[in-house]
Amino acid sequence: MLQSKNRYLGYLISNQLLVLVLQFLLFTSCGHSSSENTKDQHIIVTESVIPIKLVSNMVTQLSDNIRTIFQDSKNNYWFGTDGLGVYRFDGNKIVLFNKEDGLANNQIFSIQEDDAGNTWFNTPLGVSKFDGKK
Asked: Considering Cα of 44, then 45, then 49, then 55, what sign does the dihedral take?
């Protein structure tokens, strides 16, 4: 029963993280200005499928657990959490890494990358290295 709840919680958090990442990418990609003539271009507005209140609640719950965000040289986004491990978003999917995958601790203080492309995670119980394979 506990494992089922943990799986559901992981699934729920993954979905919330995806919404947060998509919002982050949407807001950062819309900040540019264009000098093109938009006279002949059309903008189509459609109804949102997800109610704004629901998205807001999910982002708030997830953002309470994110401690640090890092973009590596391969354009992966890493989200270090306060007790859940670290999430990697490669533009297509979100993957969770935690103690079961080799992290020293699920609480992530900071994330850095070295010149060799290894990703390092600072935790309360030491530093963990991810070489892209395991």
From this structure: positive
